[in-house]
Amino acid sequence: MTTAPDGGPDNPRAGRDRQLVDVAADLRKVRDDVGRLRTTVGDLASTVSEFGPQLLDVQRDLNGLRGLVDELAAATAATENPPADWFTMSAPAAEQEWVRLGDWVHNVLAGWYQITRAQLPDCWALHRPAFLQVAWLHTSHTQAYLPASHPNQAAEWNTRWLDAALEKVRRHIPESRCRAVTGGPGEHLVDHLETAQQGRGGGPGLPYPAASEVSPYPNPYDQQYAPQPHRQRPPDWAEQEVIRADYWGGYFTQAMQADLAWRRDRDEQLAAQDTEAGQPPGDDASQR
User: Fold this and answer.
1) For residue 116, what are the β-bridge partners?
2) For the CA atoms of 108, 113, 118, 122, what is the dihedral angle to 10 degrees?
3) CA 118 – CA 241 distance, rounded (Å)
4) Can you tell me whether residue 46 is helix, strand or coil?
5) d(CA 178, CA 106)
6) What backbone phi and psi angles, to 5 degrees, belong to 218?
7) Which has the closest alpha carbon to 255: 190, 202, 201, 188?
8) What's the rounded Cα separation, in Å, for the pair 82 and 35?
9) pTM above the 0.70 mark?
10) In Å, what is the CA distance from 11 to each residue of 22, 69, 246?
């Protein structure tokens, strides 16, 4: 029996040859693809090298924009807490600041820092220099705790500014003139009535200035006196008792009302002066 030259359909070698042909074709295709890919990578590398300097410029611009954004964020944070210009603000603006200050003293100085009546006498709002120290503490505390503020600001406030301001308050309110009282508001200017009976000039060491010697606008606070050279130690309990709004609140309201009345009178005077000068009232009177 004769067989076909290739062995016939049962010859296994014919199948292997076809597989080898197919593999060879696949290898040629892969080689062509690798060649094309190598060309594409080369083109990309050339393109990247061309855009490299431009990418560096873009990175520098992005860094510059990031710095600008940080500066703008800091400037925006700063405008959230502008300094309260108590010296020139109008009566409506001052009224808002008074309310904010009172809330802060009650919630922060009393509620969190536990400031005592010996550190901050009940009548502090009636003493303008002491009042300004507390108002400054309020503004600086708000600034120290803004999100954009550096942590060092809060540290400075707690370790230096608070104690420094309270020390100034102590010097502005002599303990021989204003003293704490158990179970109620402290006494403000305890010898005021006696001094008033002796006449406007006051007794020895208490020279009251004449009206012509003070500000052209009436002083809303009745605390024109010379500090006494000798200080009396406050009661021990006053060094432990935390300030209470029901003790200092009455004095605070009295000071606020006097201050607002003074500002309204001042604003009216300035508006009248502007009218006499031919300037429409309200242009800048509230800014002075």
Assistant:
1) 242
2) 10
3) 8
4) helix
5) 21
6) -60, 140
7) 188
8) 68
9) no
10) 18, 80, 113
Q: Tokens representing 43?
A: 């083109």
Q: What is the pLDDT along the chain (288 residues), one digit of tens a residue?
A: 555 555 555 555 666 777 777 777 777 887 888 788 888 877 777 776 776 677 677 677 777 767 666 665 555 555 577 888 999 999 999 999 999 999 999 999 999 999 999 999 999 999 999 999 999 999 999 999 998 888 999 999 999 999 999 999 999 998 778 888 888 899 888 866 455 545 544 333 333 233 333 333 444 444 433 333 334 445 677 788 999 999 999 999 999 999 999 999 999 998 888 888 876 655 554 444
Cα atoms in the Cβ-side hemisphere of radius 13 Å centred on 192: 12
> How far is CA 75 from its chain centroid?
11
How many residues belong to the chain? Answer: 288
CA atoms of 165 and 199, how far apart (whole Å): 34
For tokens 């009393």, what's the residue? Answer: 110
Place of tokens 């009206």: 211
Q: What angle do CA 54, 58, 60 make, to 5 degrees?
A: 115
What is the rounded CA–CA span in Å between residue 272 and residue 275?
5
Buried b (16+ CB within 10 A) or exposed e, 7-37: eeeeeeeeeeeeeeeeeeeeeeeeeeeeeee
